[in-house]
Amino acid sequence: MATPPTHVSIDRLSHDLRELSEIGREADGGVYRMAFTDADMAGKSWLEDRMKSAGLEVSRDGASNVIGRLRGRDPQAPALLIGSHIDTVPCAGILDGTLGVLTGLECLRALHESGRQPERDIELVAFSDEEGRFGGMFGSQAFTGAINPDGIHLATDPSGIKLADAMKEQGLDPWLALQARRDPQSVAAYLELHIEQGPVLSQAGEQIGVVEAITGLFKWTVTLAGEPNHAGTTPMPMRRDAFMGVADFAHEIPRLLDENGSDRSRATIGRVDLTPGSANTVPGEARFTLDVRDTDETVLHELAEAARRALHAIARRRGLRFSYEVESWIPPVACDPSLSSMVEAAAAHQGLRYRRMESGAAHDAQIVASICPVGMIFVPSIEGKSHSPAEWTAWDDIEAGARVMLGTIERFAFSPSPTHPTSPASSTSPKTP
Q: Is 96 annotated in some ligand binding site?
């Protein structure tokens, strides 16, 4: 007798989403489940309980990544990983990262209940600190062996709290994060579902995005130092106003993108801190963040060099001193063509409206790509809203994404020899020194 098809339950998935959304929710309606806070740790414990109830073997590694495993027929075969994160930015919505984890959970729960056993193990991973409270994607970087003791003990959040101290406060040993590295030979591929966090799918009326490439990015903290002085007695031509340097550079950004970027380039000044910060004092120092993104690493290098030149010129013209710190550099990656084809086939088989597209946001998949091939599935974000309580995806589209995830899992993990991904995903362009 043929095995009946496996189905995901949107009712169970929506119940899980509602329950987890209450962990870290505050009076303004936003979710505050930042990495290694009490709310984050409560969310991890909740997830472990749900994984156990779903019949998964549950563990937590030294980076506090939560892992649930559904056993396959061949314990020696490298596993299929499914993952994302449940930590949030401050005042977040309920879907970013979380939807990918809980969709993966529902797929594995449905498979376990069906009694069907995959050919290989399937693991669900909820990575720590994808949102970069401490400057990087700590959980997936630990998982792939991309951290070292210096990084662990020097990393701080925007308020100056050290990563090591935050972990210790939660009863964790930060040194154990160095033991979280996964043997690449034990991993066959990685699959992640995520909200798009942009308006493309929503405006096009499409249900699924088949991600072909994930943007790279660099983040700088830039300092322009001038001279503080009295706002009333210092003539305009005699000022060394640090903030005017920021304003000049902000006006330069469109030109830099036009001359050195592509239609996929993005640049953002997200925060500016002025010192002394008094209403009647010319700012003597300005520190600001610069976030630049593109899917081509050569373009990123060109934009970085163009930004340096522009800042040097502005500093010289304004009589300022210029310096910057590289907070992160994450290269772009291409998703594995065979995994993308499996996602597309699953969407087409179910008659869903889909498109191939790129991701303008960074994801854990980008880090995991250093050890195995990766694939990503997008579902629409209504009006492109994300990182806010207004973030939402229609239930029909959530269910469509879950069905595509299940279909992709079945295509990969239930075949003794699936169309095997080629190799760990690489940059969409040649590396430059």
A: yes
Which residues, including other chains, have CB under 8 Å from residue 4's CB and lie 6 or more apart? Answer: 114
Q: How far apart are CA 130 and CA 236, in angstroms?
A: 45
User: What is the percent of the chain where pLDDT is above 90?
Assistant: 91
0.90 exceeded by the pTM? no
Q: Give pLDDT, residue 430.
A: 30
Over the chain, what HEC string results?
CCCCCCCCCHHHHHHHHHHHHCCCECCCCCECCCCCCHHHHHHHHHHHHHHHHCCCEEEECCCCCEEEEECCCCCCCCEEEEEEECCCCCCECCCCCHHHHHHHHHHHHHHHHHCCCCCCCEEEEEECCCCCCCCCCHHHHHHCCCCCHHHHHHCECCCCCEHHHHHHHCCCCHHHHHHCCCCHHHEEEEEEEEECCCCHHHHHCCCEEEEEEECEEEEEEEEEECCCEECCCCCHHHCCCHHHHHHHHHHHHHHHHHHHCCCCCEEECCCEEEECCCCCEECCEEEEEEEEEECCHHHHHHHHHHHHHHHHHHHHHHCCEEEEEEEEEECCEECCHHHHHHHHHHHHHCCCCEEEEEECCCCHHHHHCCCCCEEEEEECCHHHCCCCCCCCCCHHHHHHHHHHHHHHHHHHHCCCCCCCCCCCCCCCCCCCC
Kindly list the structural domains of the chain, giving each domain's residue range(s) and its CATH number in brackets, ordered by start. 10-214+332-413 (3.40.630.10), 216-330 (3.30.70.360)
Q: According to the annotation, is 387 in a ligand binding site?
A: yes
pLDDT in tens, 260-278: 999 999 999 999 999 999 9
Residue 85 annotated as binding site: yes
Tokens at residue 64, please?
A: 């506090």
User: Was 251 annotated as part of a binding site?
Assistant: no
With cut-offs at 50, 70 and 90, classify the pLDDT of residue 139.
very high
